[in-house]
Amino acid sequence: METPIYDYLRNYAASGTVRCHMPGHKGRSCAGELSSAFSLDITEISGADSLFEAEGIIAESEKYMSRLYHTAETVYSAGGSTLCIQAMLALMKQDGRQVIAVRNVHRAFLNACALLDISPLWIMPEYSGGILSGTVDTSAVEAALKECGKPSCLYITSPDYTGRTSDIRSLAAVCRRYGAKLLVDNAHGAHLAFLPKNIHPMNLGADLCCDSAHKMLPALTGGAMLHTSCKEYVGRLKQAMSFFGSTSPSYLVMASLDLCNRYICDCIADDIADGMRSVQKLKSHFSDKLIFAESEPFHITVMAAECGYNGNELAERLRANGAECEYSDSSLLILLMSPMSRTEDYAKLTEALDTALRSARKHEPIKESFSIALPEKAMSIREAAFSPCEEITVEEAEGRICASVKVPCPPAIPIAASGEVIDRRCIELFRRYNIDKVLVVRE
Fold first, then answer.
1. What is the Cα–Cα distance from 309 to 290, expressed in whole angstroms?
2. Helix (H) or strand (E) holding 108
């Protein structure tokens, strides 16, 4: 697989050309360890193409990526899936579609709604494992689409933060019956197209989908892709992204996406096969001690509370033994691996987890089950997000209107959305997720 962006940067760095252009570092680093990276970091000079008006090496690389994912068009983002989410919603705004969203969205979705003045209709998932994970009832989706009565779209997150995937094929079929578009935040699933069974949203019927390559593929942080299967959106993705993206996107990030094409062609199938065997071996090793949530292969989600442990304590003990987790709370421990994880990584993780379990305190197993009702809506997302606000303690927040959503990332899933009235149930959830302060609209 050719790598036109990376090849251009490497050749330019070796050319000795006097850099009478940005960036100000002129290809030189103040730290020797970064010198090779700085030498490849350029701006939109002659021959280097331009991300939002791509016709040269960037467009060529994006076409390679599109072929790998079998899409009508795939474009690059150097601003992560956040930029892709903004672009997807901008397209829906241009189409005049009502956005229907499953509630366990990332805060990037809410911020995009604030910028675009979108008021989504919410579908509550059937939660399991806290607010991070839940199943989507297709009958609830159909009811929402039928009740909407105007052009609409369905926005879902799959995989969710714990690695659970939705039944996208069924959801896509429901959307087609009602002329709705299916948008998928697949930030944690760039690798799903290359599993033994292709379960990537674009293969299952999604109309628009974002992938954070940096989460599951060997790309630099911020590297993402926006895919579409619809001819009507071909040529429109970049314009939608340009509303929000920097006019100076990182060439290092784009080069890493370029190199992902080569990795996918040459290595990913073998790495996925090896990784899936290693994950299964690890899960088998702990089968009598731990309960693992249903997930795609590379999310190892431990249902800590159900096993009699505190997820945060396990995370601390893992950290002390040389393994850093993706996320923990009192109930869950999420260990996020990828096709790039090596056999020795799984061996070290197994040893660290063994040590952690030997020293961790045990309590009575707790199987949590709860449902969350939508808080009362008092203002639009945009009105609340851009209103004068103040930060107060969670204990003071009952009855106040949530302003901008301020939740930690990860997992960045809102408990109260902008414009909603914070009630006692919200406060209990804030406490559970160790959120001490919230932003509320100033009275």
1. 9
2. helix 107-116
Q: How far is CA 313 from the centre of its chain?
A: 26
Is 381-441 a CATH 3.90.105.10 domain?
A: yes
Contacts of residue 165, Cβ cutoff 8 Å, sequence gap at least 6: 158, 159, 189, 192, 199, 295, 296
Residue type at 396?
E
CB 408 within 8 A of CB 358: no
Cα separation, 99 vs 212, whole angstroms: 22
Query: Taking the mean position of all CA atoms in its chain, how far away is CA 81?
Result: 6
Residue-wise pLDDT for 189-206, tens only, equals 999 999 999 999 999 999
The residue extents of the domains of the chain are 49-258, 269-359, 381-441
Q: Please, where are the H alpha helices in 159-293?
A: 168-177, 201-204, 213-216, 237-242, 251-266, 268-285
Over residues 337-369, the pLDDT tens digits come to 999 999 999 999 999 999 999 999 999 998 876
Contact criterion met (CB below 8 Å) for 251 and 6? no
Note whether 49-258 and 269-359 share their fold: no
Tell me, what's the pLDDT at 129? 64
What is the homologous superfamily of the domain 269-359 according to CATH? Answer: Aspartate Aminotransferase, domain 1 (3.90.1150.10)
> Is 3.40.640.10 the CATH classification of the domain at 49-258?
yes
